[in-house]
Amino acid sequence: MSKQLKADISLLVVTLSWGSSFILTKNSLGTLETFNFLAIRFLIAFTISSLIFYKNMNKIDKDTLKYGIIIGIILFSGFALQTLGLNYTTASKSAFITGFSVVLVPLLSSILLKQSPQKKAVVGAFFALIGLALLSLNGKLMLNIGDFYTLTGSFAYAMHIVIVGKYTVKVDSITLAIIQIGTVAILSLFTSFTVETPIIPSGEFVWINIFILSIVCTSGAFIIQNAAQKYTTPTHTALIYTSEPVFAAIFGYFMAGEILSSKGILGAILILFGMLVAEVDFKSLFNKKDLDNKNKDVKDSLME
Question: Which of its termini does the chain have fewer beta carbons within 10 Å around, N or C?
Answer without folding.
Answer: C
